[in-house]
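Ticket 4471: requesting a sanity check on a complex prediction with magnesium ion. Repro inputs:
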Amino acid sequence: IQRTFSIIKPDATKRNLTGAINAKIEAAGLRIIAQKRIHMTKAQAETFYGVHRERPFFGELCEFMVSEPVVVQVLEGENAIAKYRDVMGATDPAEAADGTIRKDFALSKGENSVHGSDAPETAAEEIAYFFSGLELV
Ligand code: ATP
Ligand code: MG
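Returned C-alpha coordinates:
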Protein backbone atom coordinates (compact mmCIF):
# COMPACT_ATOMS: atom_id res chain seq x y z
CA ILE A 1 0.00 0.00 0.00
CA GLN A 2 1.30 3.43 -0.97
CA ARG A 3 0.38 7.07 -0.32
CA THR A 4 0.47 10.03 -2.66
CA PHE A 5 -0.18 13.73 -2.28
CA SER A 6 -2.82 15.51 -4.37
CA ILE A 7 -3.92 19.11 -4.85
CA ILE A 8 -7.23 20.09 -6.41
CA LYS A 9 -6.05 23.34 -8.00
CA PRO A 10 -7.79 26.77 -8.08
CA ASP A 11 -9.33 26.37 -11.55
CA ALA A 12 -11.17 23.27 -10.27
CA THR A 13 -12.16 24.48 -6.78
CA LYS A 14 -13.49 27.69 -8.34
CA ARG A 15 -15.75 25.68 -10.68
CA ASN A 16 -17.07 23.43 -7.86
CA LEU A 17 -15.37 20.35 -9.29
CA THR A 18 -14.01 18.92 -6.02
CA GLY A 19 -16.74 16.29 -5.79
CA ALA A 20 -16.48 15.28 -9.45
CA ILE A 21 -12.71 14.90 -9.12
CA ASN A 22 -13.06 12.93 -5.88
CA ALA A 23 -15.52 10.60 -7.63
CA LYS A 24 -12.86 9.77 -10.25
CA ILE A 25 -10.24 9.26 -7.53
CA GLU A 26 -12.49 6.87 -5.61
CA ALA A 27 -13.68 5.04 -8.75
CA ALA A 28 -10.02 4.27 -9.48
CA GLY A 29 -9.76 2.49 -6.12
CA LEU A 30 -7.84 5.21 -4.31
CA ARG A 31 -8.91 6.09 -0.76
CA ILE A 32 -8.95 9.74 0.33
CA ILE A 33 -7.42 9.40 3.82
CA ALA A 34 -6.90 13.11 4.53
CA GLN A 35 -8.30 16.25 2.95
CA LYS A 36 -8.52 19.97 3.75
CA ARG A 37 -9.20 23.27 2.03
CA ILE A 38 -6.43 25.85 2.39
CA HIS A 39 -5.48 29.14 0.81
CA MET A 40 -1.76 28.81 0.07
CA THR A 41 0.56 31.71 0.69
CA LYS A 42 2.93 32.86 -2.03
CA ALA A 43 5.86 31.55 0.04
CA GLN A 44 4.22 28.11 0.38
CA ALA A 45 3.56 27.91 -3.36
CA GLU A 46 7.15 28.93 -4.18
CA THR A 47 8.55 26.35 -1.76
CA PHE A 48 6.18 23.63 -2.97
CA TYR A 49 7.11 24.22 -6.65
CA GLY A 50 10.78 24.95 -5.84
CA VAL A 51 12.04 22.38 -8.37
CA HIS A 52 10.45 24.47 -11.13
CA ARG A 53 12.06 27.76 -9.95
CA GLU A 54 14.10 28.19 -13.18
CA ARG A 55 11.25 27.30 -15.54
CA PRO A 56 9.68 30.17 -17.53
CA PHE A 57 6.20 29.45 -16.14
CA PHE A 58 7.26 29.50 -12.44
CA GLY A 59 5.91 32.98 -11.62
CA GLU A 60 2.61 32.38 -13.41
CA LEU A 61 2.25 28.95 -11.75
CA CYS A 62 2.75 30.34 -8.22
CA GLU A 63 0.34 33.25 -8.86
CA PHE A 64 -2.25 30.75 -10.08
CA MET A 65 -1.83 28.46 -7.05
CA VAL A 66 -2.56 31.33 -4.62
CA SER A 67 -5.40 32.84 -6.67
CA GLU A 68 -8.12 30.83 -4.88
CA PRO A 69 -8.25 28.22 -2.11
CA VAL A 70 -7.18 24.69 -3.04
CA VAL A 71 -7.99 21.26 -1.61
CA VAL A 72 -4.97 19.26 -0.47
CA GLN A 73 -5.33 15.51 -0.05
CA VAL A 74 -3.54 12.32 0.82
CA LEU A 75 -4.56 9.33 -1.29
CA GLU A 76 -3.83 5.73 -0.37
CA GLY A 77 -3.92 2.54 -2.40
CA GLU A 78 -1.99 -0.07 -4.34
CA ASN A 79 0.56 1.80 -6.49
CA ALA A 80 -1.12 5.07 -5.51
CA ILE A 81 1.51 7.35 -7.08
CA ALA A 82 1.40 5.86 -10.58
CA LYS A 83 -2.32 5.12 -10.36
CA TYR A 84 -3.18 8.72 -9.52
CA ARG A 85 -0.97 10.04 -12.32
CA ASP A 86 -2.96 7.77 -14.68
CA VAL A 87 -6.24 9.15 -13.31
CA MET A 88 -4.94 12.75 -13.71
CA GLY A 89 -3.82 12.32 -17.31
CA ALA A 90 -1.12 14.24 -19.19
CA THR A 91 -0.05 17.71 -17.97
CA ASP A 92 -1.51 19.25 -21.15
CA PRO A 93 -5.26 18.46 -21.33
CA ALA A 94 -5.00 18.34 -25.13
CA GLU A 95 -2.77 15.28 -24.72
CA ALA A 96 -4.68 13.67 -21.84
CA ALA A 97 -6.44 10.32 -22.37
CA ASP A 98 -10.24 10.02 -22.36
CA GLY A 99 -11.84 9.75 -18.93
CA THR A 100 -8.90 11.35 -17.10
CA ILE A 101 -9.40 14.32 -14.78
CA ARG A 102 -7.38 16.66 -16.98
CA LYS A 103 -9.11 15.57 -20.19
CA ASP A 104 -12.53 16.19 -18.66
CA PHE A 105 -11.84 19.27 -16.54
CA ALA A 106 -8.50 21.02 -17.18
CA LEU A 107 -8.50 24.38 -18.97
CA SER A 108 -4.87 24.54 -20.12
CA LYS A 109 -1.37 23.23 -19.45
CA GLY A 110 -1.11 25.62 -16.49
CA GLU A 111 -4.69 25.52 -15.19
CA ASN A 112 -4.81 21.76 -15.21
CA SER A 113 -7.06 21.04 -12.21
CA VAL A 114 -4.85 18.67 -10.19
CA HIS A 115 -1.38 17.95 -8.89
CA GLY A 116 -0.07 14.50 -7.99
CA SER A 117 3.31 13.46 -6.60
CA ASP A 118 5.73 11.94 -9.11
CA ALA A 119 7.81 9.59 -6.89
CA PRO A 120 7.87 8.05 -3.39
CA GLU A 121 10.39 10.59 -2.05
CA THR A 122 8.42 13.61 -3.31
CA ALA A 123 5.16 12.08 -2.07
CA ALA A 124 6.58 11.75 1.46
CA GLU A 125 7.97 15.32 1.37
CA GLU A 126 4.78 16.83 -0.01
CA ILE A 127 2.52 15.01 2.49
CA ALA A 128 4.71 16.15 5.40
CA TYR A 129 4.70 19.73 4.09
CA PHE A 130 0.90 20.04 4.30
CA PHE A 131 -0.22 17.46 6.89
CA SER A 132 0.84 16.53 10.41
CA GLY A 133 1.14 12.87 11.36
CA LEU A 134 -1.94 13.25 13.58
CA GLU A 135 -4.08 14.10 10.55
CA LEU A 136 -3.20 10.83 8.81
CA VAL A 137 -5.27 7.90 10.04
P1 ATP B 1 1.99 18.33 -11.24
O1 ATP B 1 3.43 18.41 -10.78
O2 ATP B 1 1.19 19.58 -10.92
O3 ATP B 1 1.31 17.08 -10.78
P2 ATP B 1 2.92 17.47 -13.81
O4 ATP B 1 3.87 16.61 -13.04
O5 ATP B 1 2.05 16.85 -14.84
O6 ATP B 1 1.95 18.23 -12.82
P3 ATP B 1 5.10 19.35 -14.10
O7 ATP B 1 5.97 19.29 -15.28
O8 ATP B 1 5.60 18.84 -12.78
O9 ATP B 1 3.69 18.67 -14.48
O10 ATP B 1 4.67 20.88 -13.94
C1 ATP B 1 4.08 21.32 -12.73
C2 ATP B 1 2.90 22.20 -13.06
O11 ATP B 1 3.37 23.40 -13.69
C3 ATP B 1 1.90 21.62 -14.06
O12 ATP B 1 0.95 20.79 -13.47
C4 ATP B 1 1.26 22.89 -14.61
O13 ATP B 1 0.26 23.41 -13.73
C5 ATP B 1 2.44 23.85 -14.65
N1 ATP B 1 3.06 23.83 -15.98
C6 ATP B 1 3.86 22.87 -16.50
N2 ATP B 1 4.24 23.19 -17.75
C7 ATP B 1 3.69 24.40 -18.03
C8 ATP B 1 3.71 25.28 -19.15
N3 ATP B 1 4.40 24.99 -20.26
N4 ATP B 1 3.01 26.44 -19.06
C9 ATP B 1 2.31 26.76 -17.94
N5 ATP B 1 2.26 25.98 -16.85
C10 ATP B 1 2.92 24.81 -16.89
MG1 MG C 1 5.12 17.34 -11.40
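Notes from triage: The mean pLDDT is 97. Leaving this open until the requester confirms.
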